[in-house]
Design brief:
binds the ligand Nc1nc2c(c(=O)[nH]1)N[C@H]1C(S)=C(S)[C@@H](COP(=O)(O)O)O[C@H]1N2; seven-stranded mixed beta sheet; binds molybdenum atom; alpha+beta
């Protein structure tokens, strides 16, 4: 009998969580209308009254071993046996320089961030420019849960259950024309709400608004996600509420947060980190263990788990963050050390 095996990059929910939790979570998601149709998300702000209390009651096991077995060498982790990063870590260890350049600052300084009303405009070289308001973000497209690895260029990583829809569905609605070669994304500019935009030091020296870009075929790849939630709730402000991009095969800085504008353009656009330090951060930013950052190795990464000091969490970095089967084709014939 021929058994179709899933693509190695696909993280199935029953492979990242314990089977019992997975089943009861599925039932819960189904009863709330999540699976099969887009349901309303539990609001993050209502003190943890979300779907994923289950995860809190049944925390996923940390990656720990006995001290004797502890070793520094990076582990080869099977991509099908990965562990979700605990929600508390996902929402407290952030990069969102608009709210401060230290990992703990966004969770503290973004709590009053207003996401409603919100407007996301899609414009540029397309036949049907459009604007989505806050409610449209959650109701225009069927929401799916996608469990993706997120690999920051700083050599740490997480595994996160996102909620969202493929960017391509939104782009198709706008009907890009033949001049649309790249897609530009822009974060909200609001120094009154975002202290890092007001204070250059707090904001890490970046010129705001934060901008990012993708080639049109990268943007149209089905893996490219517009996320409106994580762990079954709307996004917390520190993770990019109300809507952010998630490009799982690229370094985390491509996954721009709190997006207000998407534009189809002809020329390769500037992106924030490339503008700031061009020899360290490129436009493509594909995860690549063979191309080091000028100041550190990219061959391995620290997987953020709930583990303590002995957590055996240094793992080898995978080409395209393990999503090569879906995306390697996009870069055929390109010198990836030149287009880093
Ligand atoms: N607007 C904006 N988007 C951003 C950033 C930022 O500073 N500003 N940081 C990026 C970086 S470097 C990473 S690793 C991810 C982190 O996402 P997370 O905090 O949800 O894990 O967001 C990316 N998106
Ligand atoms: Mo990052």
């Amino acid at each position: 009998m021929l058994i179709k095996s899933p693509k190695p990059s696909a993280l199935k929910e029953n492979q990242v969580t314990d089977e019992g939790i997975y089943q009861s979570r599925r039932t819960l998601l189904k009863s709330l209308g999540f699976i099969g149709a887009s349901g309303l998300l539990a609001q993050t702000s209502t003190a943890n009254a979300g779907l994923f209390d289950l995860f809190k009651k049944n925390p996923v096991k940390a990656f720990t071993v006995s001290p004797l077995k502890y070793q520094q060498a990076p582990l080869e982790i099977s991509v099908t046996a990965q562990i979700l990063t605990p929600e508390a870590k996902v929402t407290s260890h952030n990069n969102f320089y608009e709210f401060g350049a230290q990992k703990s600052q966004p969770a503290q300084l973004a709590q009053q961030f207003k996401v409603k009303p919100w407007q996301l405009t899609i414009s540029g070289h397309c036949n049907n420019p459009l604007t989505l308001d806050y409610d449209d973000l959650f109701s225009s497209f069927e929401l799916e849960e996608r469990i993706y690895r997120l690999r920051c260029v700083e050599a740490w990583s997480m595994v996160i259950p996102w909620l969202g829809f493929s960017l391509t569905k939104l782009l198709q609605k706008a009907q890009p024309n033949s001049r649309a070669k790249y897609v530009v994304f822009e974060t909200l500019y609001d120094p009154e709400q975002m202290p890092g935009q007001k204070n250059r030091r707090l904001g890490g020296g970046i010129s705001y608004p934060y901008v990012e870009g993708l080639r049109i075929d990268e943007a149209m790849n089905p893996l490219t996600l517009m996320s409106v939630g994580l762990y079954g709730k709307t996004l917390p402000p520190q993770n990019g509420a109300p809507i952010r991009l998630v490009v799982p095969w690229k370094y985390g800085f491509k996954s721009i947060k709190s997006i207000v504008a998407i534009k189809f353009v002809e020329q390769q656009p500037a992106n924030t980190w490339n503008t700031l330090i061009p020899n360290e951060y490129g436009f493509y930013a594909n995860v690549n263990p063979t191309v080091d950052h000028p100041r550190w190795s990219q061959a391995s990464e620290r997987r953020i788990t709930s583990g303590g000091l002995l957590a055996r969490n240094r793992i080898k970095t995978q080409m395209f963050n393990g999503y090569g089967e879906e995306v390697a084709e996009l870069y055929k014939g390109m010198d990836l050390s030149k287009y880093y």
